[in-house]
Write a structure and sequence with these properties.
Elements lengths: L33 H9 L18
Amino acid sequence: MDPPIGMIRYLPLLWYNKEMKNETDFSVDKISDIAPTLSAILDIQAPSGNIGTVIKNVFK
């Protein structure tokens, strides 16, 4: 469920890994996607009650 228009928040994210390509991505991801993405990077289980999905652009 998306928040009302007046409640939209933006959070700039910087992902770094020596194997990543040097590129800029202006895709819009949800804040709830941060925890499952970090879990995938760290190869651990996502938090219980997680509602987000892994940000696929991090793994290009």
